[in-house]
Amino acid sequence: MSNSASKSSAGISPSAALGGGPLGSIGRVWAIALNTFREAARIRVLYGVVILVLMSNVLALVLGEMSIYEEQRVSRDVGLAGISIFGSLTAIFLGVFLLYGEVQRRTVHAIVSKPIQRWEFVVGKYVGMALVLTVLVGLFGAAMAAMVTYQGGGVTSALLKAVVLSWCEVLTVAASAIFFSSFSSPFLSGIFALAMFVIGRLTPDIAAATETAKSSWIRLVTKVTLEIVPDLHLYSVSGRNVDGDPVSVHGDFVSWGYVATSAGHGFLWIVGLMALAALLFSRRDFA
Amino acid sequence: MVTDLTKTYRTPFRRRKVEALRGVSFRVARGEIFGFLGPNGAGKTTTIRTLMSLIKPTGGTAQILGHVLPSRAARMRVGFLPEQPYFYDYLTVPELLDLAGRLFGIDRATRKKRADFLIDRVGLGRARNQNLKKFSKGMMQRAGLAQALMNDPDLVVLDEPMSGLDPIGRKEVRDLITELRDQGKTVFFSSHILTDVESVADRVAIVARGQIQTEGTPSELVATTTISVDITMRVAGLADDKVAALVARGPGKSRRVADELHVVLPADADVDAWLAAAHADGAKVVSVSPRHESLEDLFLRHIGSADSSAAAMEGRV
Description:
In chain A, 71% of the residues lie in helices and 2% in strands. Chain A is mainly α. In chain A, helix 5 packs antiparallel against helix 10, helix 6 (157-181) runs antiparallel to helix 7 and helix 6 (157-181) packs parallel to helix 10. The longest helix of chain A has 34 residues, at 71-104. Chain B has helices spanning 44-51, 72-76, 93-103, 108-121, 137-148, 167-182, 194-200, 218-223, 240-249, 271-280, 295-316, and strands spanning 2-10, 17-26, 33-37, 59-64, 67-68, 78-81, 155-159, 186-191, 203-208, 211-216, 226-234, 253-257, 260-266, 284-292.
C-alpha cells in the first residue's frame, strides 16, 4: 500500500458531511436503486427478452399481412400482449433473483452494516428494478408504436393508456416477486409470483366461480383468493366490459380517470407488498 | 462494550440448537487496537456480525461509541470489513467507494476526494478502472479496507483482515491498522493467526466455543505465568552413569548435546535442591531461566480447556 498519501485522510473530514446528509432516506434508496439498475443492466437474459419482443413485433407485421385489413389491429394486440407477458415474466425473474442474490453472494453484508435501514434497502432494490422495467416497457411500447406507424396507423391515446396500464401491471408483479423473495428461495418465489400473476389475471373468472360455486369451501377459498391477490385484470381490459360498456384499444377505450384509479390500486398493492417485504427482510439474520 | 451476548441458532431440518455465542462480554477502550483471537468456528464472526447488526442476538447487549445496538447512529461512525468480502463485481473501486459514500450521505465532492485518497492509500491506483471481477483476493481485501474507511470512521471493525494476503500484504495491513490507531481511531479486528494479533494488538481477547476465555494486554496475559525452568549445565568430564543419575533425579525432561545437558523442570519443582544436587555431582550450571507462557501457549491452553469443558458438557447432556 502506498505511503505517499498525506496523513489524516488528505485533510478530508467526511464526518462533517454525515448526520443524515441532505439526501437522507431518499439518497440511500436512490443509491441502492442506481446500483440495482446497473446490476440488472448486465443481465444478458434481459437483452434476449428485448430481442424476443422486437421479433414478435416483426412477426406481427407478417401476421398482419396475412389478415385482411387488420394489420394495425394485429400489431397492437401482439405488441400489448408482449408488453404484458414478457414484462411480467421479466419482473418475476428480476424480482426473485436480485434480492435473493444479495443475501446469497453476501454483498448485503457490506451494505446493511452501513447506516442504511433494511426497508431502504428493499425499497431501493424495488425502485432500481422498476427503473429497468420502465425502460423495457418503454422499449417494447416504442417498438409497437413503430410497427403501427409503419402500417399507416398512429399512436392513439387508447394505445398510450393501454401501455400505461401494462406498465402498472408489470410494476405490481415485480413487487409481488420481491415480496416472495424476501423470505423464500428463487425457485419458490418464482412459482408463487407466477401463480399470483396468473390468478390476478383471472379475477373475473374467479369472482364468477365464487357466485356459482355450490360448495361453501370453494366459495370461501375463492373469496379469500380475491382478497389476497392483486386484481391484474384491471390492467388488461381491452375487449371486455368496463362499467357495463365494452372497451377496446382499437376503438373506444377506458378514460384517463380509469387509468389513474387502476394505477392507484396498483400503487397501494406495491406499498403493501413492499411494507411486508421490508418487515420480513428486517427480521432476517445474515449469517 | 459487549455484555453477555448470546446467539442460538436452530439447524434447518432437525431444529437442533447450536449455541454460537454463550455469554460473550468484553470492553474495547477508545483509541486502542483490540485483537479478537480464536480458532475457526469460535464465534468471532458471529460476534462481529452481531455488532454490525447483521445478526440479532438471542440475548445480551452491546454498545458502540455510546450507542446501544442496534443503532444507525453508531453505524454512521463505524467502518466495517466483512470476512472474505464480497462486493458487486461489476463495479470499479471508485464506483464501489462512491456507493459506500452515498450510503453515508457524503456529498459528491467529498466522495470523490475521499475515494481518490483511499484508492491511493490501499495501493489500488493502477487497478482503478478494472472491474472488481478481475481482482485477486488480496486486491479485493484492499478494496474492502478502502470502503470500510470511506466515512472516516471512529471505530474500524475488521473481520479477518489479513486472511488470504501474502506476507507483504499482511505487513501492509498491520501498518495500516497501527496508522489508524495513531490517527486516534479504535480498531477491533479478528484473526485466527496468532502472530498477526500479537504484533499489533494493544489488548487481546481469546474466544473459543462461543465464550471469552481470557482478556488483557499481551504482556499481562503471558508474563504472569511461569510454565517451566530451563537449566543448562556443562557435564564435560562426568562419567556417563553420573550424568544418567543426574537426569534420573529430576522430574523434568532432559537432552544432552555434546558436553552440555539441557534440563527442563516443571514450574513447581524444587529448583534450588535440584541445582545443589547437580553441583554436588560435579556439573557446572551455565544458565537457569524461567520460561513464561507465550501467547501461543496461552491460546492453545484456552482452546484445549474450552474444547474439553464443552466435550464434558456434551457428555453430560
